[in-house]
Amino acid sequence: MPGLDLLLPIQFDLHQRAARERCKTAGERRRRWPRLEIVVLDQAQVERLDAEAVNSAKTRSPLYAARKKIFPKRASGRFRQFKWLVMAITLGIYYLTPWLRWDRGPFAPDQAVLVDLANHRFYFFFIEIWPQEFYYVAGLLMMAGVGLFLITSTVGRAWCGYTCPQTVWVDLFLVVERAIEGDRNARMKLDGAPWSARKLFLRITKHAVWLVIAVATGGAWIFYFADAPKLLGEVVTGTAAAVAYITIAVLTGTTYVFGGLMREQVCTYMCPWPRIQAAMLDENSLTVTYNDWRGEPRSRHAKKASAAGQSVGDCVDCNACVAVCPMGIDIRDGQQLECITCALCIDACDSVMDKLGRDRGLISYATLADYNANMAMATSGGTGPVNPAVVRTPSGAFADGLAHFHLGKIFRLRTYIYLGVWSAIGLALVYSLLTRDRLELNVLHDRNPQFVTLSDGSIRNGYTVKLLNMIPEPRTIEVTLEGLDGGEMSIVGIDQPASRSFAIPVEPDRLKTLKIFVRQPADQIRKPAQGFEFRIDDKASSETAEYTAIFNAPENSR
Amino acid sequence: MSSEHVDEISGVTTTGHEWDGITELNNPLPRWWVITFYVTIAWALAYTIAYPAWPMLSSATKGALGFSSRNDVKNEMAAAEAAKAKYVAAIQSKTVSEIAADDTLREFAVAAGGAAFKVNCVQCHGSGAQGSTDFPNLNDDDWLWGGKTEQIQQTVTHGIRFAPDADTRQSEMPAFADVLKLDQIAQVSAFVASLSGPVRDMSLIEPGAKVFADNCAACHGENAKGNRDLGAPDLTDAIWLHGSGEAAIASQVRDPKNGVMPAWVGRLGETTVKELAVYVHSLGGGE
Predict the structure, then answer these.
(1) A61 and B128 in contact by Cβ < 8 A?
(2) ipTM of this predicted complex?
(3) CA distance A67 to chain B (A)
(4) For a Cys staple, B272 with which of A167, A284, A503, B268, CB 3.0–4.6 Å?
(5) Residue A43: which pLDDT band, with cuts at 50, 70 and 90?
C-alpha cells in the first residue's frame, strides 16, 4: 500500500516535534503537557507491556522497491568471445532468415522460411507443411522441451546465459549503451551527474538507437509471415495491413522496454524458467561457481597478510566479478536464482588471476558434487573455516584429491536418457518426413440419404472426395473405383459418361473437392453394406493413395 | 511484522507462514510491478467507461465508444451481404442452366440453395431431400415434371396444383372408383405392377392391359412411360411416389392422392428460387 508509505514522512515529522517538546524545561513542559506528569508518576506501579506498534518505523520495511541500476563493465575473455559469436549467429538467424530465397517453382512462394497464414501453409526450405501435418511442429516443440532438459541437466542455464532472446538483446543494447556513454565508470558518473546538454544528448542518442533496434526487431518478425521484399515495400509506403504495423508496434515496445529498461528484472521477476531450472539441475550439472575452497579467506592485502603469516585464499576481493555481472549479483554469495550463468564473471576473474599469476578458475563452471567434495576437503569436513593450506601443496600447486571437472562428468545416465528421447523424437520426425505422402485422399460418405433408389432399380451412393495435391505442381490425378461389381462413378460438374475411372486435373498445392456418385445395378448388389476402394494415382510420379469406403443399399433391393 | 520471523540465509523477514518447512520471504515488490498493477486497475476502469459495463436500472451504461455487439453482428452481416453481392448479381442476371454450367456460380448457388432448402423444403421433402411416401425424393432420376434446371425452377416458382398461382403445374389423377369395377381395378393394378416386377396372379395381366389402354394410356402413355407435360408418372420404373405394389396401385386408382406443392417465388424471390433449382439439380438426379 503506497498510500500508507506516503503518510510515513508525516508521521516522522509529528514524532520529531513531540521529541523537541520533551527537550524543553520541565516547567514549560508541565504547563504544556500537564497529563504527561501523571503518566511519569504512575510509571513505577504500571507493568510495562511488551508491545510495539505494527507500523513502527523500526520494523517497517518498504513494501515496494525501485529497481537499482546496474552498470555492467565490459568483460573480455573466452566466454565473452563465445557470447559475441552466439549473439552474431542468433541475431543473424533472426534478422536474415526471412530474406533467404528457395526456389519452389512457379506455383509456390520462393521464401525459404515462410508461415503463410492466409493459405495455411508453412514453408521451411525443402519442407512444406499443411495444417494437418502440424504434428511436425508439435514434434519440434517436444524436441525443444527435451533439449532444454538435456542442456540444463548438463550445462545448467546455458539457454539463459547465451541464447535466450532476452539475454541476447540486452547484450546488444549494452553494446549500444557502452558505445555511446562509455564503460561502467563513465556510465555511473553520467548517471549521477546533473542534467546537462551533453547528458541529454547522450541519453537521447542511446534511446534513439535502442528504438531503431527495437523497430528493426519488430519489423523482422512480420517478414516471416509474408513475402519479405514485397512486405518491406508495403510497410515503407504505408500500404501494408494494419496487423503488420500493430505487430511492429507491439514488438518494438516489448524489445525496447524489456531490453533497454527492464533487463534483469525480466529474468528475476517475469520469467518462470529460473524457478523451473531448480528442478532440472542436479549435483552433476555445470553451474557458474565461485570456488571458495580456494578463494577464501579473501583478502585485499594478500601480500601483507601472507607476510604476517596468515594464510589467505586466491580471492583478492577486487569485485571484478560483480562489476561485469549484467544481473548485478555477487557470484561469491553462491548459486542464486538471479544468476543466468552468462560466465562473464569467469572471464573477469580469470583475467585477474592471470595478472596475479595464479591458476585460472577461481570462478568456474563446476558441478555441485565437485564443489561439495572440494569444500569438504578445504574445511576438513565442515569442521572449520576454509583452510588454504589443505588445498595447496607448499609449492602452490593444487593438492591431490581435489575434484576437477572433465567432460566425462556430464555424460551420465540422465544425460543419455534425455539424449535418447531427444534423438528418438528427431529420428521419428525425419523418418515420417521422408516417407510422408504428398498425394492424399479423404472420403466422406453421404449419410442423408445413405442411398438413393434410381428409376431402373439401381442404387446410388454419394461421396464427398477430397484430393490433396500437396506439391506445388499441377497434377492429373486418376480416380478409380476398385471392387463393387458393376459399379460406376459420375462426378458433379464433370460432363462425362459414367465410368470406373476419371482423370481429374488438380491445381498445384491445392485440395480438390469432388462430389462423386457411385451407382450399382440392382442385380449386382450382394449385401446392404459392401466395401470397395477409391484409388487415386498420379501416373507421372507413380504416387498412389487408397480409401476403403462402404456402399449402402436397402435390405430388400437384392 | 514481528521481527521473530527472519530468514537466516537471506536476512529477510518472512510472512510468518510455513508450509512443510517452506517459508515465504517478504521481499518488497519491484516498483514497476506495483505500477503495472495499478495500471491494470486504471485500464479496467477506463474499459468500463469505454465499453458497455455498469448495470443501471433499465439497461447498462452505453460506453463512450458506442460499441454494441448487435451493431457488430449487423456490420458482419452487411459485410457478408456485400461479399455475396457479386455472385447474387450474377445469379440474378443468368439463367439457371448458365449458373449450373459455371463452377464458381454453381458452388455458390448450391450452398445458398442448400441453406434455403433446409429452411423451406425439408418439412415435406426431408432434410436430405430424400422424400417419403407421397412426397417425392429429389435425389433420384425420376421426375414427374422434368429434371432439367429450368423445369425444376418452373416447379419451384409456381408450384404444383397450387390454386392461388395461375401458372401452377396443373394435372389431376381422376378417381376411378365409380368408373371401373372392382375386378377391373384389380386387373389394371396387376398389369401396372407387372411392368416393374412380379405379380401374384399372372392371369390378371392381360385383361388389365386392356383396361389400361382404355382408361389410363391417355395420360400415362401406351407404354405406361408417363407424360411429363401432364405430370403423369412413369409406371414402368422402380420409383413409386405413393407406394409400390398392387395394393398401393389399386388404392391410387380408386381414390388417388394428388399432392400440392406451393409456389415459392412470391415468398422467396427469384434469386433464391434459382439457387434452389440449382441445388436440387445438383443432388444427383438432375438431367
Answers:
(1) no
(2) 0.82
(3) 7
(4) B268
(5) low
Residue A73 within a domain: no
Q: Closest Cα to residue B195, out of B232, B154, B228, B237?
A: B237
- Quick one: pLDDT at residue A61? 64
| Residues in contact with B238: Cβ distance below 8 Å, sequence separation at least 6, in sequence order | A453, A454, A455, A456, A457, A522, B196, B244
Spell A427-463 as b/e; 16+ CB within 10 A means b.
eebeeeeeeeebbbbebeebeebbbbbbbebbbbbbb
Q: What is the pLDDT of residue A54?
A: 65
| A94 plus A13 within the same structural domain | no
My answer on whether A502 and A549 are in the same domain is yes
Q: Identify the closest residue of chain B to A447 by CA–CA distance.
A: B128
Residue B149 distance to chain A (closest CA, Å): 14
Q: Is A415 within a domain?
A: no
Whether A136 and A52 share a structural domain: no
Which secondary structure element, helix H or strand E, spans residue A125, and what is its range?
Answer: none
Could you tell me which of A325, A303, A324 has the C-alpha nearest to residue A312? A303
Which own/partner pairs from B241-244 qualify as long-range (CB within 8 Å, at least 24 positions apart)? B241/B133, B241/B134, B241/B135, B241/B136, B241/B144, B242/B133, B242/B134, B243/B133, B244/B193, B244/B196, B244/B197
What nine digits make up the cell of A165? Answer: 532472446
- Give me the sign of the Cα torsion angle A280, A283, A287, A292: positive
Interchain contact B128–A (C-beta under 8 A): yes
Top pLDDT among A60 and A492 is at: A492
Task: Write out chain B residues lying below 8 Å of A493, CB-based.
Answer: 103, 106
Domain assignment of residue A454, yes or no:
yes
E strands along A218-347, which residues? Answer: 286-290
Q: Which residues of A touch B282 (CB under 8 A)?
A: 492, 515
Q: Chain A within 8 Å of B106 (Cβ-Cβ)?
A: yes
Q: What is the pLDDT of residue A7?
A: 43
Candidates A123, A230, A114, A124; CA nearest to A509 is A123
Query: Which residue in the block uniquely carries the three cell numbers 434469386?
Result: B271
Domain that holds residue A530: 439-557
Residues A425, A426, A428: CA angle, nearest 5 degrees: 65
Instruction: Judge if A458 and A377 occupy the same domain.
Output: no
What confidence tier does A22 reach under pLDDT thresholds 50, 70, 90? very low
Do A116 and A236 belong to one domain? yes
Mean pLDDT in residue range B190-212: 93
Let me know: does A314 contact A295? Beta carbons within 8 Å.
yes
pLDDT in tens, A100-130: 999 999 999 999 999 999 899 999 999 999 9
Tens-place pLDDT, residues B224-275: 999 999 999 999 999 999 999 999 999 999 999 999 999 999 999 999 999 9
Pick the closest to residue A506 from A444, A551, A440 (CA basis). A440
Cell of B200: 401374384
Residues of A with CB under 8 A from a CB of B: 2, 54, 59-67, 262, 265, 269, 446-449, 452-457, 460, 462, 492-493, 515, 517, 522
* Closest CB to B28 among A63, A262, A453: A63
| Gap between the Cα atoms of B124 and B4, Å rounded | 84
Q: Using one digit for the tens of pLDDT, what is the confidence trace for B8-44?
A: 777 888 888 888 988 888 888 889 999 999 999 999 9
Binary contact (A448, B130; C-beta < 8 A): yes
